Amino acid sequence: MPLQDLGGLRVFRFESLSSPGLVHAIFTRRGGVSPAPWSSLNLGAMVGDEPARVVDNRRLALQAIGRAPESVFDVWQVHSAEVILAEAPRGDAPPQKADAIVTDRAEVTVMMRFADCVPILLHDPVRPAVGIVHTGWLGTVRQVARQAVRRMCERFGTHPQDLRIGIGPSIAAHHYPVGPEVVEAFRRSFGTTAESHLSREDGGTRLDLWSANAQLLREEGVEHIEISHLCTACDTADWFSHRAEGGRTGRFGALVALAR
Q1: What's the CATH number for 4-258?
Q2: Which of 9, 121, 190, 214 is deepest in the core (most CB within 10 A)?
Q3: Are 211 and 197 in contact (CB under 8 A)?
Q4: Does pLDDT of 115 surpass 70?
């Protein structure tokens, strides 16, 4: 599905997640109030931007999608395999350290921030529940996407074949060279299938996070996976990219919620 205008903001939405029972969006960097280098819809509070501007950007994003700021549950993202169950909005409680959130509560909007790492949105339309995952190379090695599916199965009775999953805008393999320590860790985690996600180019090795995470999901029995094929490093007009912008940039937001 192409990028869309939503309340003055530019967003990406998955075709396979277009359902009357679901609210979801991945926001581009356009339409916010932050100046360079965070211009303009920066939702990252720990990247040097003024906190008041981040609050304004968050309000604009949630307003565009029709969700209240008070509905949000987010976490302190630490490249882990930790999955948090959100039974109510986070409110004023300190954020927990985790890289996946799942919920079956329509009053909760699960939300995360990205700038090259992979956003993965999950929807079980049968036993209504949703989830969101943040995964870079370390989260992929730790197989956090697999853990999110398992948590939904354990907690909500989700059947993996019912899940609709979107793998969102993130850094593509052709922009993602990795060092030997990453390659070794990836091979330990993925075993004999590792080489199918590694490519050699210009004397280095590149890692395909999209195909690697799709493999983890399929191994859990997921059949319906949509990959956006949008590279954040290719298009910094729309996306924040930690690598392409030398680490001095903002974070774009992704959210998903059951419709109320």
Answers
A1: 3.60.140.10
A2: 121
A3: yes
A4: yes
